[in-house]
Amino acid sequence: MATPPGPDPEDLTARARIRDAALRHFGDDGFEKATIRGIARTAGVSPGLVRHHFGSKQALREACDEHLMKMIRRLNDQVRADTTLSDVSYVGAARAAMAPYQLYLARSLADGSAASIFDEMTRICEEWIAGADAGRPDPPDVPAKIRAAVFTAMALGIPVLAPHISRAMGVDMFSPEGDLLLSRALVDLYSHPLMTPEDAARARAGLDRLAGARPPGRRTEENSP
Amino acid sequence: MATPPGPDPEDLTARARIRDAALRHFGDDGFEKATIRGIARTAGVSPGLVRHHFGSKQALREACDEHLMKMIRRLNDQVRADTTLSDVSYVGAARAAMAPYQLYLARSLADGSAASIFDEMTRICEEWIAGADAGRPDPPDVPAKIRAAVFTAMALGIPVLAPHISRAMGVDMFSPEGDLLLSRALVDLYSHPLMTPEDAARARAGLDRLAGARPPGRRTEENSP
DNA sequence: ACGAAGGCTATACACATGTATAGCCTGCTG
DNA sequence: CAGCAGGCTATACATGTGTATAGCCTTCGT
After folding, report:
1. Which chain B residue's Cα is nearest to A118?
2. Is the pTM above the cut of 0.85?
3. pLDDT of residue B189
C-alpha cells in the first residue's frame, strides 16, 4: 500500500476542490445541466476562479477525465503489481476508491466522451481475454480486441444503467446489500453460457450465409436486444 | 404481416413529423442539447407549433417515450404471435423498424429516464430466463427478475456505448459489416462461460462469507468491470 | 356562401448560463 | 519597506433557450 488511495499531493488546493466538485456535479446532474456557478458554490469559491484555473467548462471536463484516467491507471498498476492477486481487501480498497467517480464515469461514457478511458479498459480486458484464449480448444473467429470492446461495453452497461438495476432489485446497487445481490447475479450469469455450442454453430452458419448473401442491406441475427 | 412496420395511421401529420424529428434530435444530440427550434426546423414547422401540440419540451419527450414503448410492445407481440419464431426475416424487419430509435433509446436509458421501457425489456427477458431455468440442474440463488435486470443492463450497454464499440471495431456498429462483426463477437462471448463452475462456487463462497461477516461496509468481490 | 374552429406562424419576453474584464488582497522577494 | 506576481472575487456582457401571446389562413360544417 505505497500510496493509499486518498489525498494526492496537490490536494486541498482550491484547484483540486474545484475539480472534485466538478466530478460530483457532472456525475450527479450531467455535463449540460451542471453549472459553473453550482460547482463553484460546492467548492467554496467564486465562479470566476473556475475560469481562472481551467479556462472553460469544456476544459474543466477534460481535466476531470484526465484525473480519472490517472486514478484508474494507478489502481490497475497497484492491483497488477501485487503478487497476491486474489487479495480481496485490495480489490475492495480499489472499488472504494472508485466509488465516488462511478457516476461521473457512467455519464461520461454514455455521452460518447471518455473515449480514452473506455479504450484503456478495453485494453486491460483484451489482455485478460487473450490469456483465456490460450487454453481454449476452438479458435475464436473474432479478434480479441473486438470481443474485449463488446464485453467492456456490456460490463459498463451495469454502472451506466445503475438506476434501473437498483429499481429492479429494490435496493440501491451501490449499497452493500445491492452490491452483494448484483455480484451473485453476475456469478450466476457468468457461469452459465447463454448459448450451447450447437446454438452457436447454427448462429455462426446463419451469419456466414448472410455475409455471403447480401453485402449491402440490413442483417437479421440476434444481437442487440 | 398484418401491420407492416412503417407508417401508422396518424402519420404524415405535422404532429407525427414533430415527434419523429424530436426522436432524432434527442437521439443525436441528447435531450438537453436538442432545441425546440432545431426540432421544428427538421419537422418543417414553426417552433410555436411544437408547443401548440405538446405543451412543453418535457411533455414532448414523454410523448416520444410513449411512442417508442408502443412500438416496442407491438414488435414484441408480433414476434411472439408468430409461430415460426426462427423466421429471420421477421427479426430483421423488427430490427430495421427499431434502428431509427436506437440512439434515442440509448440516451434515454442512460440518463435514467425511460424507466418503463427498461422495465418492459426486463420483463420480457425474465420470461425468457424463467424458461431457461426450467431445464437446469442447479437451482439459481438469485430471483429471475434480478438476473433479468442485470442482463438487460449488460445487453443495453452495447447500444448505449455504441460509439466506443464502433471505434474499437473500426466500422460503424450499425453498418452491415459492423453488425456482422458484433454478432459474431456476441455469439463467441455467449457460447463461452466466463467462469467455470469451480470459480463460481468459490466466488459464491466468498460472497457468503462476506455477507455473514460484515453487514455494513463495502464489499469486495469482482463484479463491476 | 358564411362563419367558426383549429392548425400554424411571427414576435416578444424572461431568464439562466458561459464568458470576459477590472480590480482586490495576500504572501513572497529584493 | 516597496513592489509585484498570482490566487481570488465582483460585476457586466452576450447569447441561446424555453415559454407565452396575438393573429393569420385553411378547412369543414351548415
Report:
1. B164
2. no
3. 93
Tell whether A88 is within 8 A of chain B (Cβ). Answer: yes
Q: What is the pLDDT of residues B38-73, one digit of tens each?
A: 999 999 999 999 999 999 999 999 999 989 888 888
Q: Predicted confidence band at A90 (pLDDT cuts at 50, 70, 90)?
A: low
CA-closest candidate to residue B145, choices B122, B116, B114: B122
Q: How many Å from the CA of A25 to C1' of C9?
A: 40
**Within B 154-193, residues with CB less than 7 Å from strand C:** none
Name the average pLDDT for chain B. 82
CA distance A17 to chain B (A): 25
pLDDT at B7 over 90: no
pLDDT digits (tens, 9 = 90+) for B88-103: 455 556 666 777 788 8
Cβ B191 vs Cβ A197: under 8 Å: yes
User: B149: which chain A residues are within 8 Å (Cβ-Cβ)?
Assistant: 164-165, 168-169
Q: Which fold has domain B1-111?
A: Tetracycline Repressor; domain 2 (1.10.357)
Does A80 lie at the interface with B, CB-CB under 8 angstroms? no
Protein CA at A107 to nucleotide C1' at C15, angstroms:
27
Q: Give residue for cell 448505449.
A: B160
Q: Using H for helix, E for strand and C for coil, what is the string for chain B? A: CCCCCCCCCCCCCHHHHHHHHHHHHHHHHCCCCCCHHHHHHHHCCCHHHHHHHHCCHHHHHHHHHHHHHHHHHHHHHHHHHCCCCCCHHHHHHHHHHHHHHHHHHHHHHHCCCCHHHHHHHHHHHHHHHHHHHHCCCCCCCCCHHHHHHHHHHHHHHHHHCHHHHHHHHCCCCCCHHHHHHHHHHHHHHHHCCCCCHHHHHHHHHHHHHHHHHCCCCCCCCCCCC
Chain A segment 92-111 residues within 8 A of B by beta carbon are: 92, 95-96, 98-99, 102, 106-107, 109-111
Through-space separation of residue B49 CA and nucleotide D22 C1' in angstroms: 14
- Residues in chain A closer than 8 A to B190 (CB atoms): 193-195, 200
CATH 1.10.357.10 in chain B: give the residue spans: 1-111
Calculate the angstrom distance between C1' of C16 and CA of B38. 20
Provide mean pLDDT across the span A155-182. 92
Is A186's pLDDT higher than 80? yes
B48 nearest nt, CA–C1'? C9
